[in-house]
Write a structure and sequence with these properties.
alpha+beta
Length: about 100
């Protein structure tokens, strides 16, 4: 299962990144429905490290990653964050509703 790690520069306000993630979740709900997003979308915030991890192991997770990456690139610019894809079969991350 692929996880996508987003690392934000110090200039990026984390409150705005959080709002952008919530917008991406709403967009994913438009594509997949609220219940499916609630069941399949998983992410984790590490505010102290300025990172967000989104699980891309499902169709919902892949779409959420595409939406989030597109939104943050347009809002903050490509140099405001770095993205790494990590393969992981065992890490459990928070569900979208938590």
């Amino acid at each position: 299962m692929a996880q996508v790690h987003y690392m934000f520069t110090p200039e990026v306000p984390l409150e705005e990144v959080d709002a952008t993630l919530r917008l991406a979740l709403l967009a994913a709900q438009s594509l997949h429905g609220c219940d499916r997003v609630g069941l399949e979308a998983q992410y984790r915030w590490e505010r102290a490290d300025r990172t967000c991890v989104i699980d891309g192991g499902t169709a919902v997770g892949r779409d959420l990653n595409c939406l989030f990456a597109g939104f943050i690139r347009r809002e903050f610019g490509a140099k405001a964050f770095q993205v790494d894809r990590v393969e992981s079969a065992t890490t459990k991350i928070s569900e979208a509703g938590t």
